[in-house]
Each structure stands twice: as C-alpha cells, then as structure tokens.
C-alpha cells in the first residue's frame, strides 16, 4: 500500500496509480486525458527536466495544445500530478508509461537513421532500480521492433536478485497528432496494445485495456503481439508520410503541365479506397515523427538485409527533401535569380498550424537555403518564439553575420513591409484573414507571393497585383504549353 492508501497492485489488479516518465508532447497530453477520463486513477507525470515540471505546475504550460490547459487546470492537484521525484513515482505506480524522446541517432552506428534509445534504456534502468514490486511497463515512445525485448532484459535482470519484482512490458504506441492531440485522445480511431503471449502478458494487456475502456469503445481497442504493435506504429507513420510524398511528387507534374494539384487530389481522393484525407500538397512534411520513423523503418529493413524495401521507403524521405529544395530554388529563380540583400517575409515557422513545435519543420530548410543566398528574412509566426527560431536556424551569436540577416516580427504587416516576397510555410488559418491589398501596397514591386501551403487562390492574389507561385499550380502561361518529348 502507498501512503494514500491506493494499492501498489500487481498485474491482475485494477490499475490505480499510473506514472508516466517523460513530460513532453506525448506524455503530457496523454496523461492529462487519462486523468480526466479516469477519476479513480492517480496519474503522475515525471521528467528529469525539473524546469519543465515547474512549467507543468505553473499557469504557462510548456506546450501549446488546444484544449490541454483546461483539462490540466481541472485535474491538476486532484488526480493529475507533475513531479521531479522519479524514484518515488516509480515505486508507487502500478503501471509505468515510458514516454521519452527517441530522436534519430546523431553518432556512431546507425547515425542519421536509427532511433537513439539511450533515454528509453535509462528509464528502464531507473524502473529496475526503484520498482520495489511488480509493475506493468508500457512503451509509449515510438521504438524499433523488438525494443520491448531489450527493456525486458534489463528489468528481468533486476528480478534475478530481487524476487519481489515482476515485470510485464507492453507496447502501446501513441497516434495523436499535434494540434489535435486532445481530440485524438478523446476520440481515437483506435488504441493499440501489444503484449506477451503468456498468461501474465494477457493479464497485463487486460489491465491496460480496462484503463482505456473508461472512454474508448471496446471494439476500437486492438490487442496484438508486442512486435506487431511496435511495427504498426512505424508503418502507420510511414504510410502517412508516403501519401504526402506521393501528392508532392504529383505537385511537380502539375506545375509543369497546367494541372492543379488540389483538383487532382480531390478527384483521386473521391475513390473510397484511396480516401480524401492527408492529400494536401505542401512544402514538405515536418514534425518530430515522420522523418524519424521512416528512417527507423529504413534502418530496420537494412539491418534485415531487405535492401529493396529499404530503398522503397527511403524514397519517401528523398521526395520530401527534394520538395523543400525545389520550393526554395523556385523562390530564388522567380526573384530574378538573386535574393541577396532582399527582404523576404516568411509567414509561419511551425511544422504545421496550431502548434508552436518547430521540430523538422520545412521552414527551417527553406530559410536556411535563403540565408545561404544572403536574403534578409523577416519571420512571423503566431506561436513560435524568436529564440526557438534562432536555435533551429543554428544562429547562436548575436554578432554573427548570418544572425543579422534574420529578423523576427510580432506583426505580419510589419514583416511584409518593404519585402520583395512573402513565403508561406505554415498553414495558419489567420494567414487567410489578412488584408493582402494593404500588404501588397507596403511591399517592393513587383511583389511575389510563394504559397507553400495552398492557402490562397491564384486569381484573387493576381488580381491584387501579386506575382503568385503556388505548390502544384501552374502559372497561366504554362497551361498553354503543349506536349513535349521527354528530354
Ligand atoms: C504525426 C501522425 O499524424 C500521428 O499519428 C503520429 O502519432 C505522430 O506523427 P504530427 O507529426 O503531429 O502527427 O502531424 P501531422 O498532422 O501528421 O502532420 C505532419 C506533417 O505533414 C506536417 O508538417 C503537416 O503540415 C504535413 N502534412 C500533413 C502535409 O504536408 N499534407 C497533408 O495532407 C497532411
Ligand atoms: P515526445 O514528443 O516523444 O513526447 P519530448 O521531447 O516532447 O518527446 O518529451 C520527452 C521528454 O522525456 C523530455 O521532456 C525529456 O526531458 C524526458 N526524458 C528523457 N529521458 C528521460 C529520463 N531518463 N528520465 C526522465 N525523463 C526523461
């Protein structure tokens, strides 16, 4: 029994106390939702970053996610706790989520491809050290297939010297998308739980199923073996990323022929076998998951000597990088082949709307390319802070020459004033509401608008006076071009 009388439990009992290690984009929102939907469960989120925990306990949460603040404020201090006392929280839990980051490894074997599992391993070691009794350990972090086995080896080693310990490791990948995390968690397409095919494994799976059953219909909770669950997460992200690379590859054909990528996506997506979601052509996908998970899948295939399969999935990443570069090159070409010394307004730096997250944002790549050409870039984003932008662009010293090429604005009209072009890199809804006649008048003419997110209608922008360049839409003169033999 713990100090407040709640049971420490075993694999067969009802889960009463959950600890989540990792208070990031996955751990924070997931645990807030569990606390909200399961008032009978005490949920504690811990992190080695004490400043982050202080923020979770303050009025300004460390991450922005629509609907999150309301739930945290409602549950915090009742059955939702944020703590830096990792050993105590591990000891008192019946079930422990591992929700730490698994970034792409930047050193040694698998550099630039494999996920770095050092954080997952360190949590496994902390659990082995502080558990003090039976625990269900749940991988939430996206991990390579068979990672559960490594976690289990560490935990079972501790069991050898302490027979009061007993562990089950489950895989329960998170499918939430940033910006819609709370909606995704409240009403998930599915919850996936993978576990060991043994009596104890089934009991552990049943215990976690029971937690989710508080609000998720039972038929949407899928249970599989551990490896299927781990692989499904990688494959789901790879399929989603592949769709974007597919439509982005088509956007290039559209620009060269006069077809319109939105019309093509609409027509193709009408086929119910294909479906109409995730077919928005763009300057390329960003975010912490897609690139990392596709690379992880590629690395897995290479490790299994499935080189053709690895090559196939690597194409998804290649098209994404090509699309970013293609867009940046087009900006330079259309601004008369030189952007040096020209002010270019960048609208949007986050990797997508409704988030302040900039990880792997295509904006970083496009801005870096423009900076290499010595453009003066003036960035406006409604949520991303200046220091975050500078960090992502690798600008650390204030007297650095490149540093001076970047200015950050809190008003989009000021960002666009005296600019030669506006470059739209994030699909924030507010970008559609501005007075573009006023913006156009304040710019250097001819003024260009590069729409990397298909927010605007060519005709409307051209009637204001803009030279308009949209991903997957051809300038009018191109629609008159006939067939040409491949060169
Ligand atoms: C993704 C998955 O959707 C989620 O299930 C998984 O758990 C984590 O990874 P997330 O990265 O938060 O979620 O965002 P998502 O909405 O998938 O967008 C990823 C990137 O693709 C963004 O840069 C977005 O702008 C881009 N995108 C998305 C497109 O370019 N076109 C589209 O049609 C959809
Ligand atoms: P994700 O998007 O996967 O949630 P984040 O980077 O937002 O990733 O969050 C992961 C969190 O995990 C970070 O706040 C980090 O400090 C925390 N973390 C990493 N390793 C450990 C560890 N060994 N113990 C506790 N917290 C950890």
TrEMBL record:
Domain of life: Eukaryota
Coiled-coil residue windows: none
Residue numbers annotated as active site: 289
One GO CC annotation: nucleus
EC supergroup of this enzyme: oxidoreductase
Ligand binding (NAD(+)): 22-27, 47, 52, 100-104, 141-142, 178, 289-292, 359
Chain segments annotated as transmembrane: none
Entry EC no(s): 1.1.1.22
InterPro entries per record: 6-PGluconate_DH-like_C_sf, NAD(P)-bd_dom_sf, UDP-Glc/GDP-Man, UDP-Glc/GDP-Man_DH_C, UDP-Glc/GDP-Man_DH_C_sf, UDP-Glc/GDP-Man_DH_dimer, UDP-Glc/GDP-Man_DH_N, UDPglc_DH_euk
Domain UDP-glucose/GDP-mannose dehydrogenase C-terminal: 345-458
One record GO biological process: glycosaminoglycan biosynthetic process
Keyword Ligase in record: no
Gene3D superfamilies per UniProt: Cytochrome c1, transmembrane anchor, C-terminal, NAD(P)-binding Rossmann-like Domain
Annotated catalysed reactions: UDP-alpha-D-glucose + 2 NAD(+) + H2O = UDP-alpha-D-glucuronate + 2 NADH + 3 H(+)
Pathway: Nucleotide-sugar biosynthesis; UDP-alpha-D-glucuronate biosynthesis; UDP-alpha-D-glucuronate from UDP-alpha-D-glucose: step 1/1
Keyword annotations: NAD, Oxidoreductase
Signal sequence coordinates: none
GO function terms (MF aspect): NAD binding; UDP-glucose 6-dehydrogenase activity
Pfam families the UniProt entry points to: UDPG_MGDP_dh, UDPG_MGDP_dh_C, UDPG_MGDP_dh_N
NCBIfam families reported in the protein's UniProt record: NDP-sugDHase
Biological role stated in the UniProt entry: Involved in the biosynthesis of glycosaminoglycans; hyaluronan, chondroitin sulfate, and heparan sulfate.
Entry's family note: Belongs to the UDP-glucose/GDP-mannose dehydrogenase family.
Protein name: UDP-glucose 6-dehydrogenase
Source organism of the structure: Pristionchus mayeri
Taxonomy of the source species: Eukaryota, Metazoa, Ecdysozoa, Nematoda, Chromadorea
């Amino acid at each position: 029994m713990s100090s407040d009388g709640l049971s420490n439990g075993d694999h067969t009992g009802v889960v009463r106390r959950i600890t989540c290690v990792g208070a990031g984009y996955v751990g924070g929102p997931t645990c807030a939702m569990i606390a909200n939907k399961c008032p009978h469960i005490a949920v504690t989120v811990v992190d080695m970053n004490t400043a982050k925990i202080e923020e979770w306990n303050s009025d300004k949460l460390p991450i922005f996610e629509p609907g999150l603040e309301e739930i945290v404020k409602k549950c915090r201090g009742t059955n939702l706790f944020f703590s830096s006392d990792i050993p105590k929280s591990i000891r008192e839990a019946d079930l422990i989520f591992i929700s730490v980051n698994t970034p792409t490894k930047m050193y040694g074997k698998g550099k630039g491809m494999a996920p770095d599992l050092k954080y997952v391993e360190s949590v496994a070691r902390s659990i082995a050290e502080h558990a003090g009794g039976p625990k269900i350990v749940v991988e939430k972090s996206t991990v390579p297939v068979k990672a559960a086995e490594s976690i289990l080896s560490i935990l079972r080693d501790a069991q050898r010297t302490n027979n009061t310990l007993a562990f089950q490791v489950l895989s329960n990948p998170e499918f939430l998308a940033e910006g819609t995390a709370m909606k995704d968690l409240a009403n998930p397409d599915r919850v996936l739980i993978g576990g060991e095919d043994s009596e104890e494994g089934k009991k552990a799976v049943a215990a976690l199923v029971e937690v989710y059953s508080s609000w998720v219909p039972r038929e949407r909770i899928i249970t599989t073996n551990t490896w299927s669950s781990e692989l499904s997460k990688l494959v789901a992200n790879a399929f989603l990323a592949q769709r974007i690379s597919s439509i982005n590859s088509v956007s290039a054909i559209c620009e060269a022929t006069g077809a319109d990528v939105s019309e093509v996506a609409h027509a193709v997506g009408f086929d119910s076998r294909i479906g109409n979601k995730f077919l928005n052509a763009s300057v390329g996908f960003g975010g912490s998951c897609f690139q990392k998970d596709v690379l992880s899948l590629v690395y897995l295939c290479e490790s299994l000597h499935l080189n053709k399969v690895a090559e196939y999935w690597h194409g998804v990443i290649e098209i994404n990088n090509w699309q970013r570069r293609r867009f940046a090159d087009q900006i330079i070409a259309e601004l008369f082949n030189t952007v040096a010394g020209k002010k270019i307004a960048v609208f949007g730096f986050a990797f997508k709307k409704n988030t302040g997250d900039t990880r792997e944002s295509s904006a970083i790549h496009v801005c870096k390319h423009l900076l290499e050409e010595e453009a003066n870039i003036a960035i406006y984003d409604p949520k991303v802070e200046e220091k975050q932008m500078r960090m992502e662009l690798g600008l650390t010293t204030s007297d650095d020459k490149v540093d001076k090429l970047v200015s950050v604005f809190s008003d989009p009209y000021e960002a666009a004033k005296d600019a030669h072009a506006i470059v739209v890199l994030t699909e924030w809804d507010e970008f559609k509401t501005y007075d573009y006649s006023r913006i156009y008048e304040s710019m250097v003419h001819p003024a260009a608008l590069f729409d990397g997110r298909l927010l605007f209608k060519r005709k409307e922008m051209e009637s204001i006076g803009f030279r308009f360049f949209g991903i997957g839409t051809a300038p009018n003169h191109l629609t008159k071009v006939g067939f040409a033999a491949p060169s």
